[in-house]
Structures are given as C-alpha cells and as structure tokens.
Design brief:
Blueprint (H helix, E strand, L loop, with lengths): L1 E3 L3 H6 L2 E5 L2 E5 L4 E3 L7 E4 L9 E6 L1 H4 L1 E2 L2 E2 L4 H9 L3 E6 L14 H5 L2 H4 L9 E5 L2 H5 L15 H15 L4 E6 L5 H4 L9 H14 L4 E3 H4 L7 H7 L8 H14 L1
Parallel strand pairs: 6-9, 6-10, 10-11, 11-12
Antiparallel strand pairs: 1-4, 2-3, 2-5, 7-8
Length: 260
C-alpha cells in the first residue's frame, strides 16, 4: 500500500477526489491511502461541504440498511456519504421490510414492519441532518395511498406527513431531507393488488408531500441511473429488483446523494 501526502494547500480544502487509472477514490484531510497504486493519480480539490464534520441520521428501509441477500453490504450508502460529504458520524436507522405507515388491524405489523411512525423518535438527537428514505415497502404490501395534507398514520401519504411534521417540530433548527426510492421495475409492481397505481406515480405522490412540507429531496427513481427493466442494469446493479448491490451504491447511489 502506497501513501500520498497532499500539499498543505490541498489540506486546507479538507476533501479531495483522486483518480488512478480511471478509478475514483476519496480521502479526508490526512494521508490518502491507495490499494491499487498511485501511478498517474490526480488530486482534484473539492469544495468545502456545509455539513463537513457534522452528523447525519437516516430512517429508512433495507436500502438504507444495506441488505444484500441474507446478509449486509460492506458499505451501505450512508457509510459512503461519510466519505463523500465529510460527516464525522453516520447513524443508520434502516430496517428491512419497514413501512412508513402503521396498521392497527394487524397485530404483527409493528414487529414485522417497524413503521416509521413508531420509530422516528429513536433517531439520534445530536444529528445535524436527518434523512427519510421510504415508501417502497408500503407500496409492495398494499398500504393505502391516502390523501395529501392529512396525518392519517394508516395511509402512506398521511404517515409520511406525520413523520415529517414530528421531525420538523422536534428538530426545527436542523436540516431534514427526503430520499425517493429507486425504480424497482415492472415485475415488482405486480405485488400491488389493491389499486392500479404504478410505482412511478406512487413516488410522484411522495414528492408532492415533500414539496408541500417544504422538504428538499433526492429523486433516486429518476436520477439513480439504474433501470431494473433493462436486463443489463438488473444483472449488474440490482439483481433482485429491490436492493442495489455494492457496485450500485458505490457508482450510482452514493455519488448522487453526495452531490445533493
């Protein structure tokens, strides 16, 4: 392993993007370690990030958790954000199968679905920025869409509105943002049976909530660069149509979230 000593001028900038033979590497304001050699490496200074040194906490689904088959990705996207954005701490509150909404008619719902409405208060109170990534499981398990501008916790729109307003009330001086789920492909849309809304239209409804509540958001459905309906994309980035693999996280998801 070879080390590169950034110049004092670059150290003042804090974070850099380094390229080596076409690959991209990221380093903090200290020694940068390459595992594939440094021949022809270029150090490109990046702007100071507004939350550099801060803390981020994201409540989410298996996508945030980093599910991979029966295991877990080595680096879920939130861990990559630590590098991309310079966070000092990243708290991962992603849980597989988690919905935004609750269901009082199902006695097992809370233990199986871990709804956001029941666990938003478990987020780290010392974070500087809070993220909300969800809505895909609600779609798949037939949670009713609901009506906009309500706080009906048994519908997706109402539950999302409730969670946003609770976070804004408790963390009025912090930044809150939303993450729109990536495209899951036409095959998975067959799981929804209570109505004929497409997953694309479902995500547009999520966006309407964020816009109405004045919450910035990242639309991974449209900007992730992953189309699971494309055979090659499915094979390379999202084999099960639901969970981006490590390559997808590193090349597609994390860089786009980092730019946001």
């Amino acid at each position: 392993t070879e080390k590169v000593e950034p110049s004092p001028e670059l150290l003042m900038l804090g974070w850099f993007m380094l390229t080596d033979n076409g690959g991209t590497f990221y380093g903090a304001n200290s020694n940068v370690i390459f595992t594939n050699g440094v021949s022809g490496a270029k150090i490109v200074p990046q702007a100071i990030f507004p939350y550099q040194g801060g803390k981020i906490d994201i409540i989410g689904t298996s996508i945030t958790y980093g599910l991979r088959g029966s295991g877990r990705l080595d680096y879920p996207y939130i861990e990559r954000l630590k590098i991309h954005c310079g966070f000092s701490q990243c708290y991962n509150h992603g849980i597989s199968s988690s919905t935004i909404a609750e269901n009082s008619k199902d006695s097992n719902w809370d233990s199986v679905r871990n709804p956001f409405t029941k666990r938003w208060m478990s987020l780290n109170e010392y974070a500087d920025i809070y993220g909300i990534e969800g809505g895909s499981n609600d779609y798949l398990v037939n949670v009713p869409l609901g009506e906009p501008d309500t706080e009906d916790k048994e519908t997706m729109l109402g539950a999302l509105t409730y969670v946003i307003r609770q976070l804004k009330k408790k963390y009025y001086d912090r930044t809150i943002f939303g993450i729109i789920p990536p495209n899951m492909g036409k095959e998975k849309e067959a799981w929804r049976t209570i109505d004929d809304i497409s997953f694309y239209d479902w995500t547009r409804k999520i966006i309407e909530v964020y816009q109405r509540e004045n919450i910035p958001y990242v639309d991974l459905y449209t900007i992730s660069g992953i189309n699971p309906n494309n055979v090659k994309d499915k094979e390379i980035y999202i084999p099960d149509l639901l969970h981006p693999n490590q390559l997808a996280v590193d090349k597609k998801i994390a860089p786009r979230l980092g730019k946001f």
